[in-house]
Amino acid sequence: MTGGGWQDGELPHGLAAEGLAMLRAVLDDFQLWGGARVTATRDVRLAGCPLAADGTVDLDHKEYLPALSRLMDDVDAVLVIAPESDGVLARLSALVEEHGRLLLGSGSKAVSVAGDKWECFRRFIENGLPTPHTRRAVCAELAAAAAEFGFPLVLKPVDGVGCEGVSIALDPVSLRMALDLLCPRPESVLLQPFLSGAHASVSLLATETGVRSLSLNGQEISVGVPFNYRGGTVPLDHVLRDAAFEYAEKAVTLVPGLRGYVGVDMLLTDKECYVIEINPRLTTSYVGLRRIIDINLAEAIWRACRDHALPEKVILSGRVSFLKEEFCVVGFT
Q1: DSSP codes joined into one string, 39-54
Q2: Highest averaged pLDDT of the listed ranges 63-72, 181-190, 281-290
Q3: How far is residue 166's CA from residue 285's CA, in Å, rounded to a whole number?
Q4: What is the pLDDT at residue 183?
Q5: 39-43, 141-145, 278-282, 292-296: which range is least confident on average?
Q6: How far apart are the first and last CA of the chain?
């Protein structure tokens, strides 16, 4: 069974489009593999979007957890597609674990750790990984903290997915604008220096005993208030690719319980690659990677999580670019 959804509040159009694109891509791969019968869950607000699954169940976002609990009785394994924001991915992963089903992804405790950007920063620093200097600031004292930290800076939530809630602040005015975008306003936020470089990510497969980098991906991000993820390129040709692979693999080992498909966001300059954060889930780069890699990624995720097996090597043929605008949500209101 595979699925994705947002449990509470509004369904963000951008996140809905990206999540649906990932869901469709992995469903296509399961269908091409043919090694499992798949039931897909779909947020009822996206009921007009067709899915390539053996069965599709529409779920009301207000009753997601009880409905999923009932579905668990009829499946052997579950792949969760959901954001880390507000602990959604961790709660859904924990539900799978409580039902004793094979989780085709990272364990709930690992998701909670990886989704906490402050905790990841601490682990990166303690283990010698290059990462931007980061400060955690209470929102009530943000103006003073930012003045001491120095402009320009990047403000981001402690948890979040993609560019959600991330903004550049050039001065106190744009800082207030950036903070106002975080609704509901959190108790604390993270401050980082603004660094110029190429936005990138590494796609990896992880098991209990090993990690394998699959690709270095370019991310098209417009910097502003807020940042906006516009699309990507797979693979990214960069002189620091091997270092990025090394650092990303080390970052994944710092969070026990990461399994299946994992993404690590990076910032690459001419001389250094900075580890930014870990994404304990499918990332949007999956949509491009599956088109040029010589393995079936759905099968690879299955084997990584069930058999603890990683591909000996992977070959990428060509290059593919994609834009977020290409991800269509039919019938979205």
Answers
A1: EEEEEGGGTTS---SS
A2: 281-290
A3: 19
A4: 79
A5: 39-43
A6: 26
Q: What is the pLDDT of residue 8?
A: 44
Give the whole-angstrom CA distance, residue 174 versus residue 179.
9
Long-range contacts of residues 232-235, Cβ cutoff 8 Å, at least 24 apart: 232/201, 232/284, 232/285, 232/288, 232/321, 232/322, 233/288, 233/319, 233/320, 233/321, 233/322, 234/203, 234/285, 234/288, 234/289, 234/291, 234/292, 234/316, 234/319, 234/320, 234/321, 235/292, 235/316, 235/319
DSSP character at residue 293: B
Q: Token pair 């699309």 is at which residue?
A: 231
> Degrees (nearest 5) of the Cα angle 25, 322, 8?
60
pTM given for the model: 0.93
Radius of gyration of the chain measured on its C-alpha atoms: 19
Which tops the pLDDT comparison, 112 or 3? 112
Q: For strand 102-103 and strand 135-138, is the pairing parallel, antiparallel, or unpaired?
A: unpaired
Task: Over range 297-311, report the average pLDDT.
Answer: 98
